[in-house]
Write a structure and sequence with these properties.
The complex is a heterodimer of chains A (152) and B (435). By secondary structure, chain A is α+β, with helices and mostly antiparallel strands. Chain A has two domains: 35 residues; 104 residues, Rieske [2Fe-2S] iron-sulphur domain (Rieske Iron-sulfur Protein). Chain A is 17% helix and 32% strand. Chain A contains one helix and eleven strands; from the N terminus they run αβββββββββββ. Chain A starts with a helix and ends in a 6-residue tail after the last strand. Chain B is mainly α and 435 residues long. Chain B contains 16 helices and four strands. In chain B, the strands form two sheets. Chain B has a two-stranded antiparallel sheet. Chain B has a two-stranded antiparallel sheet with strand order 3-4. Classes of the chains: A alpha+beta (152), B mainly alpha (435). At the A-B interface, strand 5 of A face helix 8, helix 14, strand 4 and helix 15 of B.
């Protein structure tokens, strides 16, 4: 290759143009990754424990089921692990209206295209006595939050 | 000069030179006209025929034009906000005089454009019109099909009804299944991790500006390529059969000296290489048909819009997925695929979202894109409907087409609550309306 002065200068010129465009595009694109999200909190308070009936209670605002078994509580996601539709509780199982996934009461897939079980979320009692769910903390199936004796 | 002649002369100066009084004027009617100059002055008679192309590409383009006009008008009435979008739909339907007509026309023209684009693609395949230099235009056509589908998808999200909400939910979750970058793609599409105002605004701007812009650019290139390729592939059998005598080369170096041609001489020839008898003037042979097609397409969309209302479901409700939740017909085959292609491999299950939502359509698209280079048939099979030599290719394409249509039919007529199969006529069990 004959590295003439003209070749170097021309390369620098083209490089400068390309770089200017790349930086401009990068700068514009970066704005599309939000730094602040005004989204609902991942950890929230629900109702008081005594407001829940035995069995499965759907929470429409947070798309999950609160399951009560006397003093034991757990929370299970109502968002289908396939493509995100809201599953419905049908006496013995969860069923999804979009693509027909079905889950056992503990979230294990028993039919349809769902690839993973419905996740369980961490449940606790807030200091002022409300059921509190943290959807950022997934817990093992079989997790149980038992109400402290004094409160129950 | 009378006033009428003056006005006519003025109009000709400004834009139009219409009724030709000779061959030269017939040519100029096209070449010197602002709107028509992208047509050639003369076209092959077979290119303009109804039976060869059915004018499907033109119909798709006209529908796109209708979509542009009605869409721009709808922008005056639509607010891209999660709180107001659904209200704007109701206003258009009940409070704006003839607002329903605009909305219906926009929706039905969109459905029509998807359908006609599919049919146009099928026509090009069955006539073997994607070969040789036209392979590039086949690829442009595929890009146009994709952008058309994207525009439809982003379009039916805007009413922010149940269809919209669950389409974004499912659509962006399919994007999330993409290997490695999936989570990032979804984050960028939604402008966050959950579906909300950011997502609606992004899809809105894509729908009203960027995707139509892409379609316009691709459309312009598509048309330009048709001309550069010498017209529709229907002319290829003519070229083949005519065995034209090569024209005498002019013995001059002028062209190469002027820099107009390489070598020592250039042959000036008709761009279509056709006999005079095979060609007709674009004006009026093409223009008259074009006006007729515009008239028919416009009237059909208006008629359909008068008798059938564009679908609008209940307002978006994240807590309650409609049961069953069905995509518009042109995505129903994909819905069937994502619902039935989850594959267990050992202890892990590969989601149907990845297989049916990304891999299968990707493979189909790749096969279509590579087809011109896989097709080894002879030139005699080019530009002919159902050439015997290409019967296996046509059978393959037809099979895929039939499978897609069959899946769509299952989705429309046989799927019931919880996506179970119910024969048409069998009653659906009652399902909870609220939870």
């Amino acid at each position: 290759m004959n590295t003439t002065r003209r070749w170097v200068l021309s390369l620098m010129g083209r490089g400068a143009v390309a770089l200017a465009f790349l930086i401009q595009i990068g700068a514009a694109a970066r704005a599309f990754l939000p730094n602040v999200l005004y989204e609902p909190l991942k950890r929230f308070k629900l109702k008081r424990p005594d407001q829940y009936a035995e069995g499965f209670t759907f929470d429409p605002d947070h798309r999950l089921f609160v399951v009560r078994n006397q003093d034991n509580f757990h929370a299970i996601s109502a968002v289908c692990t396939h493509l995100g539709c809201t599953v419905q509780w049908r006496e013995t199982q969860f069923a999804c209206p979009c693509h027909g996934s079905r889950f056992r009461p503990d979230g294990i897939v028993i039919g349809g295209p769902a690839p993973r079980p419905l996740p369980w979320y961490d449940v606790s009692l807030s200091p002022d006595g409300f059921i509190e769910v943290d959807t950022e903390t997934q817990v093992e199936r079989g997790f149980n939050f038992t109400l402290p004796k004094a409160k129950a | 000069m009378t006033m009428r002649e003056r006005l006519s002369a003025l109009w000709r100066t400004l834009a139009w030179s219409w009724d030709p009084r000779g061959e030269r004027e017939a040519g100029e009617a096209i070449v010197r006209n602002l709107w028509l100059h992208w047509f050639p002055a003369k076209v092959a008679r077979v290119s303009a025929s109804w039976s060869y192309s059915a004018w499907l590409g033109a119909i798709a383009a006209i529908l796109f034009l209708i979509l542009n006009v009605t869409g721009l008008l709808l922008m005056f009435f639509y607010v891209p906000s999660t709180e107001k979008a659904y209200g704007s739909m109701k206003d258009l339907d009940y409070a704006v005089t003839l607002g329903w007509l605009l909305r219906n026309q926009h929706r039905w023209a969109a459905h029509g454009m998807v359908a006609v684009a599919f049919l146009h693609m099928a026509r090009v395949f069955f006539t073997g019109a994607y070969r040789g230099p036209r392979a590039l235009n086949w690829l442009v056509g595929l890009a146009l099909l994709l952008t058309t589908l994207l525009c439809s998808f982003t379009g039916y999200l805007l009413p922010w009804d149940q269809l919209a909400l669950w389409a974004v939910t499912v659509g962006t979750n399919i994007a999330r299944e993409a290997p490695l970058a999936g989570e990032f793609i979804r984050y960028v599409l939604l402008g966050g991790t959950q579906i909300g105002q950011n997502a609606l605004l992004r899809f809105y701007v894509l729908h009203v500006f960027f995707i139509p812009l892409a379609i316009w650019a691709l459309f312009a290139y598509h048309m330009w390529r048709v001309r550069k390729d010498g017209g529709l592939a229907a002319i290829e059998p003519l070229r083949l059969n005519r065995q034209m005598q090569p024209k005498q080369m002019p013995a001059t170096k002028s062209y190469s000296l002027w820099g107009l041609a390489r070598g020592t001489s250039a042959a000036v020839r008709s761009s279509t290489e056709l006999e005079e008898s095979d060609q007709v003037f674009a004006s009026p042979s093409v223009t008259r048909r074009l006006v007729l097609v515009v008239l028919v397409v416009l009237n059909v969309t208006i008629l359909i819009s008068v008798f059938f209302n564009a679908p609008l479901e209940e307002a978006a409700n994240p807590a309650l997925t409609p049961n069953p939740a069905k995509a518009p017909w042109y995505f129903l085959w994909l819905q069937e695929l994502v619902a039935s292609t989850t594959i267990p491999i050992g202890s892990i299950r590969i989601s149907g979202g990845l297989i049916g939502g990304i891999i299968v359509p990707g493979v189909l698209l790749a096969a279509a894109a590579l087809w011109p280079w896989l097709d080894r048939s002879s030139p005699a099979a080019e530009g002919v409907w159902f050439a015997r030599e290409r019967r296996w290719q046509n059978a393959t394409f037809a099979t895929v087409l039939v499978l897609i249509v069959a899946l769509i039919m299952i989705g429309i007529f046989v799927r019931g609550p919880y996506w179970r199969l119910y024969w048409p006529g069998t009653p659906w069990p009652p399902t909870p309306r609220t939870l």
